[in-house]
Amino acid sequence: MDHLVKRKIAIYGKGGIGKSTTTSNLSAALAGKGYKVMQIGCDPKADSTKNLMKGQRIPTVLEQIKAKGDAITLQDIVFEGFGGVLCVESGGPTPGVGCAGRGIISAFEQLESLQAFQVYRPDIVIYDVLGDVVCGGFAMPIRGGYAREVYIVSSGEMMSLYAANNIATAIRGFGKRGYAKLSGLILNAKNIENEQEIVQQAVEEIGTKVIQYIPRSPDIQTAEAQGGTVFEVLEDSPMRDVYNALADQILSSQL
Q1: CA dist 225 to 1, 167, 250, Å?
Q2: pLDDT of the residue at 145
Q3: Among the listed ranges 124-128, 141-145, 149-153, 207-211, which one has the minimum average pLDDT value?
Q4: Of the candidates 159, 166, 99, 180, the residue with the CA atom closest to the CA atom of residue 133
Q5: In a 3-state reduction of DSSP, which class is residue 176?
Q6: Which residues does the annotation mark as catalytic?
Q7: 166: exposed, middle or buried (C-beta count within 10 Å: 0-12, 13-18, 19+)?
């Protein structure tokens, strides 16, 4: 896979922080710049890609393995969304049964056995990963060599920054073994008091930098209510410029 995919990115963050919204708008921005993007949702909720799929939930890899067994094909698990973004959801077990991270491991194994990267040849693969716990399957994107760059989405809220610090610690641990490195933090604002100052202090302690400030905007909710990203739904939204700037920051960062 290394020689096939130019950029391999993992985006981590606490659940509910707006990580999937950020990721899908980033994917749409990159697609708009002419890149072939594959977005892989690594969360049992399997809702990472819905804003690229007109609000529709796609079948997960785990569901399709269960339903089709050895007869599974790439067409069963890879779906083309807005801008030609290739969408995949790993999925997870029934709540209360089995390990959620196991779904990610199974999904990655299935994508490899079906040679997804050789067939689709994406320029950029983005893993959208739940970061409340960075163990087992949730660590796969950074531990298994799937991603080379990691970005953390966080607000200035205490629990979000606590998760960001835990994620950064895990990345440092894996980084010593030549795996992925932390490339920066994306500040998804919640409009709390002194938010930018709080986050700036936190990134200095973590040892990284804020690569993009994403202001709180009703345009995001408006677009999501219509099942899309701002690029698909809102022609005049200033949020397009914000996500395009994020895409440019990531494209210009050196590995």
Answers
A1: 36, 30, 27
A2: 81
A3: 141-145
A4: 166
A5: coil
A6: 14, 19, 45, 132
A7: middle
